[in-house]
């Protein structure tokens, strides 16, 4: 085992402790009949934690990691370090893209062999580790071949390359017992309509997704297929803009019963929504799957992928998750990266420890709110009028009949308060 993290040992729960310890995340604490670890289902993002070099749009690498470099020796060392950190944190899950774990080969076949070797290393390490695979995915956006998209690319050879890449990643996810497989269309969109046939590209995207679903059933993969919505960046407009847009695509291609969504906090904000809005909508449509937990810098206006630190914001997200029954195959993936000035190995562990504490505080508050019942009681009271026979009849009636009732009964409704501030005060008592 690597000792990249020096003498850092397993992080313990110690509310009064000093240094690196969990002050709120007690994995064995019972909340609504389940252990906290089982509710939160934390995962480490392999790409941000071990592959990201510390750059930003205006500057390059700041991190100096011994495994950096496009070599298999580096990839093997990276796997050692990853499982070292999983053990330190006691993480139940991790997630990866193919390009995170292996160097690019001179040919597709060489890249595949490199990938399969590291997947075998993962399988070996997982035999003695508690850490499991929450989901795998394919990087179909970083390499220059994907500059015009993957499934939506105008070049059919890129479509084929992308399909082959997804196949190998699905095979690996299946082999490692992954609980989901994620599709993130980082460049499935357009830069300008001047050179874009949008109808053709949407058809290609739908066909690609149908092929993925068909292959899932062919190989007997029992996990969920997830799509991750994002409105923009790097493209001007991405076709998987938000939950509502993705659901429309799924309905168009008859896949709304086959595919669910992996919702990211930062992407929800970029789409002009709140995180809890996107989760609640996915729950209402029956397509909620999993979450990427992070945050944006609200002054920067772009996807900064910072670790979460806002307990009220997190609590409202987990409230919607718990109200919908909690995670099934999904979990809380920290799709978050260090700031480029945070250079030390300890910084990486500390970032996860702090984020796990924030999420624990948020979920506990959400559970208390749900069990307290004030919000749900207020919601039921607001819609109570719809429980009357007359109101229910309107939902199966016609326009003329409803209009006639207004005059016959002399209806003249008075508006009632939505009590928003009172409800916000309720939330504030918990968080």
TrEMBL record:
Compartments, as annotated in UniProt: Cytoplasm
UniProt keyword annotation of Magnesium present: yes
Stretches assigned to coiled coil: none
Binding site for Mg(2+) 2: 264, 267, 303, 305
InterPro entries cross-referenced by the UniProt entry: Xyl_isomerase-like_sf, Xylose_isom_bac, Xylose_isomerase
E.C. designation(s): 5.3.1.5
Cofactor detail note: Binds 2 magnesium ions per subunit.
Cofactor(s) recorded in Swiss-Prot or TrEMBL: Mg(2+)
Record GO biological process: D-xylose metabolic process
Cytoplasm in keyword set: yes
Active site annotation, chain numbering: 97, 100
Molecular function in Gene Ontology: magnesium ion binding; xylose isomerase activity
Keywords: Carbohydrate metabolism, Cytoplasm, Isomerase, Magnesium, Metal-binding, Xylose metabolism
GO CC annotations on file: cytoplasm
Family matches, as PROSITE patterns: XYLOSE_ISOMERASE
Family the UniProt entry places it in: Belongs to the xylose isomerase family.
Subunit annotation: Homotetramer.
Protein name, UniProt field: Xylose isomerase
Source organism: Roseivivax marinus
The organism's taxonomic lineage, starting at the top: Bacteria, Pseudomonadati, Pseudomonadota, Alphaproteobacteria, Rhodobacterales
Gene: xylA
């Amino acid at each position: 085992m690597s000792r990249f993290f020096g003498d850092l040992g397993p992080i313990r729960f110690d509310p009064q402790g000093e240094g690196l310890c969990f002050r709120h995340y007690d994995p064995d604490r019972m909340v609504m009949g389940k252990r906290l670890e089982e509710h939160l289902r934390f995962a480490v993002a392999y790409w941000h934690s071990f592959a990201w070099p510390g750059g930003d749009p205006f500057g390059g690498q700041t991190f100096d990691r011994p495994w950096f470099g496009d070599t298999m020796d580096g990839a093997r060392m990276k796997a050692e370090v990853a499982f070292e950190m999983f053990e330190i944190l006691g993480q139940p899950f991790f997630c990866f893209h193919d390009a995170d774990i292996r160097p690019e080969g001179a040919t597709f076949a060489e890249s595949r062999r490199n990938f399969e070797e590291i997947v075998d290393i993962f399988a070996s390490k997982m035999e003695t580790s508690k850490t499991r695979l929450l989901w795998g995915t394919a990087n179909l956006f970083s390499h220059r071949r994907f500059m015009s998209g993957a499934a939506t690319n105008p070049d059919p050879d890129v479509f084929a390359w992308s399909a082959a890449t997804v196949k190998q990643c699905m095979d690996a996810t299946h082999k490692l017992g992954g609980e989901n497989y994620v599709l993130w269309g980082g460049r499935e969109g357009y830069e300008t309509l001047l050179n874009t046939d949008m109808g053709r590209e949407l058809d290609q995207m739908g066909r690609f997704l149908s092929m993925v679903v068909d292959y899932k059933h062919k190989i007997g993969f029992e996990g969920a297929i997830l799509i991750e919505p994002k409105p923009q960046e790097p493209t001007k407009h991405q076709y998987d803009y938000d939950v509502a847009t993705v659901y429309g695509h799924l309905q168009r291609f008859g896949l709304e019963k086959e595919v669910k969504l992996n919702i990211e906090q930062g992407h929800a904000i970029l789409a002009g929504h709140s995180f809890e809005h996107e989760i609640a909508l996915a729950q209402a449509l029956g397509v909620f799957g999993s979450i990427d937990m992070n945050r944006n810098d609200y002054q920067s206006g772009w996807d900064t992928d910072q670790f979460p630190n806002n307990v009220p914001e997190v609590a409202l997200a987990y409230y919607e998750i718990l109200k919908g029954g909690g995670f099934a195959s999904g979990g809380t993936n920290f799709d978050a990266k260090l700031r480029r000035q945070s250079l030390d190995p300890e910084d990486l562990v500390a970032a996860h420890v702090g984020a796990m504490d924030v999420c624990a505080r948020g979920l506990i508050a959400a559970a208390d709110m749900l069990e307290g019942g004030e919000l749900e009681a207020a919601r039921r009271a607001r819609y109570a009028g719809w429980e009357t026979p007359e109101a229910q009849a309107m939902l199966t009636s016609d326009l003329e009949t409803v209009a006639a009732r207004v005059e016959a009964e002399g209806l003249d409704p008075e508006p009632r308060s939505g009590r928003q501030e009172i409800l916000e005060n309720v939330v504030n008592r918990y968080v």
